[in-house]
Amino acid sequence: MEEQFWKACYDGNVEEVIELLQNSQINTNWQDSDYSRTPFYIACCYGQIEIVKLLLNDGRIDINKEVTPLWITCENGHIEIAKLLVNDNRVDVNKALNNGQTPLYRACFFGHTEIVKLLLNNDRIDISKANNDDNQTPFWIACENGHIEIVKLLLNDNRVDINKADKYGRTPFEIACYNGHIEIVKLLLNDDDERIDINKDGAIPFFVACKNRHTEIVKLLLIDERI
Which of 224, 137, 223, 142 is closest to 184 using CA atoms? Predict the structure, then answer.
């Protein structure tokens, strides 16, 4: 019966889910043997919003079990489900994987701008929490991956530590120079509040731009008197 319930959540079969939820003996938090995914997790993962609504209204559902449904929702960019979860105070909005990657980090990693907006507007979000492996923040990973709209959002939020380096000492500004993301480099150089410490690593941002032959970035840095 549990496997049937799990499959119905996976398929988005609303009528079958309703019928199975009426059985008081069913284990609604049953996990599959492959990846320990609950029915609630799998519904969030595959964007089955009507199923998610049903399960959120069932008191038997453990909405923070294991890898959280919010985490996979943010990774996959399901904005409407993300809204439901973020607005539910039972959901641990900062619960991360063992490597420390939060839902916000995953949304920034994959460039899901609307989800990042949603999370930034929630007071419970820890917006500068770094992962455990590399000490990379959501802002850092957005700069590395070239997601300029997300960089703009985070840059406009004074809670964000925009100079926080990873465990190798690389700042968000340096990694943008390293990867040749010229629009992000321009954005950081023109920050009105001048919060960016462009010499935090000495000559390293200039060095990596030269090393990787990012000519236009080198030109920008050469005419900046702060370098």
Answer: 142
CA distance 34 to 215: 48
- For 110-130, what is the mean pLDDT? 93
Digit-coded pLDDT (tens) for 46-55? 999 999 999 9
The DSSP letter of residue 130 is P
Q: What is the pLDDT of residue 103?
A: 94
Residues 82 and 48: beta-carbon distance below 8 Å: no
Q: What is the pTM of this model?
A: 0.89
Q: What is the mean pLDDT of the chain?
A: 91
Angle at 101 between CA 100 and CA 105, to 5 degrees: 145
Q: Please give the DSSP secondary-structure letter assigned to residue 101.
A: -
Reported residue count of the chain is 227
Between these two residues, 194 and 111, which has the higher pLDDT value?
A: 111
Q: Give dist(CA 57, CA 40) in Å, integer.
A: 11
CA distance 22 to 183: 54
What sign has the CA pseudo-torsion 103, 109, 114, 116? Answer: positive
Helix segments in the chain, DSSP class H: 2-11, 14-21, 39-45, 49-56, 69-76, 79-86, 103-110, 113-120, 138-145, 148-155, 172-179, 182-189, 204-211, 215-222
Residue 202 has pLDDT above 60, yes or no: no
CB 43 within 8 A of CB 11: no
